[in-house]
Structure formats: structure tokens, C-alpha cells
Amino acid sequence: MPDAKKHILLIGGGHAHVAVLADWIKHGLPAERATLLTPHPMLRYSGMVPGWIAGEHRADDGLVDLTALARRAGTELAFDRCCGLDLDRSTATTSSGETIQFDYASIDTGGVGRARDVVGDDPRLIDIRPIDVFVDRLASWRHTARGKAVRIAVVGGGAGGVELAFALRNTSGFDPRPDIVLATGDEGLLPGFADPVRERVLAETRDQEIRLIEGNARFEDGWLVAADRSIEPVDLVVAATGSAAPDWPGESGLACDADGFIAVDRHQRSTSHPNIFAVGDVAARQDRHIPHSGVHAVFAGPVLADNLRQVLAGKEPQRSYRRRWNNLYLLNTGNGSAIASYGPFAAQGPWVVQLKHWIDKRWIATYAELARGG
């Protein structure tokens, strides 16, 4: 029997769920009732944060209006955070104690920061997750530190850490520019990227006088150390150490992988509860490895929208997101240029950062037009 007279709950306002809302705006709500449960009225697009730090974007340029999208999609809003599910009763509990009943639920909350587990605790530490908290804390720190000579340590040698190191070196409004140390971790600089990309990034760090340390960074007795030596003095520590799983999915009884991420099949459907879907950093595909990266959540969004429409019509989901053989990465160097990575190929120049800005702004503009009713 068709399930069109059901209630679907979207838990989290992540990159994939904005694509679901867009689908509902364009093609109609596939259920009798829908609710978006999210703590924030806006989604901040993390790909534009380095450009904001370097003064290439305004703080609000990378925001997607979840409130307007939800209203246009005929979706109710609940501004709160999910802290647990009762899977027998099909209810979600919010941090304020409210209970929301659902027939189907889709989870796109993102992962949680793990910097304190990896690096240790210190008041100078800022985790990039969640991104909204990171932006607020960094904005506050910049206000108090502007005009001073400062030294910043970035922990994490992946694409996120590299972009943040370049952005912070070119922080808007700072004279002198911040001194930057990038502690890559034991895996080194840009693990998984091709040698030509790493060579260009390495040359750029030398040109911008960013110090590289290949080793894990950790606080010991109040000192930040890496590769068995102190890298103090440090005024700020920015951690891009990857995503951890929130506790509540596993505690609720959803099947999870060994790291606590929600186990889903090729249709993004829970392997233990067929009325639950999950996507993005909170989920782990069991049929193939999909890295936790915003680019994959963006591409998986339309697939998720189709599969939700199928199950709400009483049918089985059909589509599966398959990552491309390679994805295009555009690493902003913070100085009016960027480095492009596509498989074994690399390129660099002002045209690359212009391409990055065009792609980012086009993605934002798509949802801004939908939010306005265009």
C-alpha cells in the first residue's frame, strides 16, 4: 500500500537534506506531513569558510536559508537537536525533551568533533566541527587578536587542514600576518592525493613560510608537542582531525559500524531499521567505502530524495550514490590563487580560485533562488 499519508522527519539540516527540500519544492511533498528538526535556521557551507577567513567572502555568503526552504517545501520546522530515538515507537527525542513521532526518518546531522580526543584539552583549541561553532569562536578570537603578532598551529594534514593553514596565514585584517605551523599527523601531507598535488602544496607552504611538521600533535602538560618536540609558543590551535560519530544513534539501537557511524546500505537505508535513512558524515555505507566529505553528501542528496519518494509511495528504493573515479578538489591558498586536484592531475593559478568561487556561489545561489520562490 502507498505510504503517502505518512509523516517523514528530517533530522539535521545538512548538505543532503537541502537537496531533499529542493526536491519537495520542485515535485511536491511526497508525504502527508514532514518536519525538519535542526538546531540552526541556516546551513553554513563549509567549503566557503577558508575564503571567508582570507577576506574573499563575507561571513553570510556561504549560508543556505533552511527556514525558507522548509516553508516552501511545506515542511514544519523544529529548532532543536536530536538526542535519541525510540525505534519501537518511532519517535525522536530532542535536547529540550520534546518527542516527535515519525513514520520515516532521514538523518543528516553530520559527525561530531573529535579534537579533544585526538589532541587533548586546552583553552586555545578550536575544533572545526561543528562548523557554526568554529566560525563564531574564530570570529571572536580574531576580534581580540587583531593588531597583535600571533602564532597559530593547525592540526591535520588533509585537505581541510591545508586550506585552513593557507587561509589563516592570509587572515583578513591582520598585520603582521599570523605565523602558521601545520602539524600533518603521521600520515603526512595530503594522504591519498597524487604526488603532483602534494608537490604544489609543499612548494606553496614554502613560499608562504608555513612551517610543516610531519607528526601527531598533542598537548602534554599544557604544551603542544609534535614529532617529540615542542612547537610552543602558540596562541591558537585549530584542529581539522576528522569526524567522529555522535553517541545517540548507537545508544538508540541503530546498527552502527565499529566507529559508531550509522550502518546503511547502498540506498542510504539503515541496515537494521528500514524506516530510517542516513547520509553524510553520520553514516557509513556497508557496500563500499565513501569518505566523509561534504562533496559526497552534496552528490548523495538527490539520490536520497528519490529513494525517500520511492518508499513513501510504497515502493522499494532504487538509486545508489556511486562516487566518481575521482573528484575535483580545489584547494584555496588564501592569496588569490588555488590548487586543483583531479586524480593524478594538478594545476594552480588565479583561474583555479575563480573557478572554485564560481562553483561555490552557484551552489549557494541555486538554493537562494528556491528559497525566494524562483
UniProtKB/TrEMBL annotation:
Keywords: FAD, Flavoprotein, Oxidoreductase. It comes from Erythrobacter rubeus. Residues 7-297 form the FAD/NAD(P)-binding domain. Gene3D superfamilies: 3.50.50.100. InterPro entries: FAD/NAD-bd_sf, FAD/NAD-binding_dom, NADH-Q_oxidoreductase. This is FAD-dependent oxidoreductase. Its cofactor is FAD.
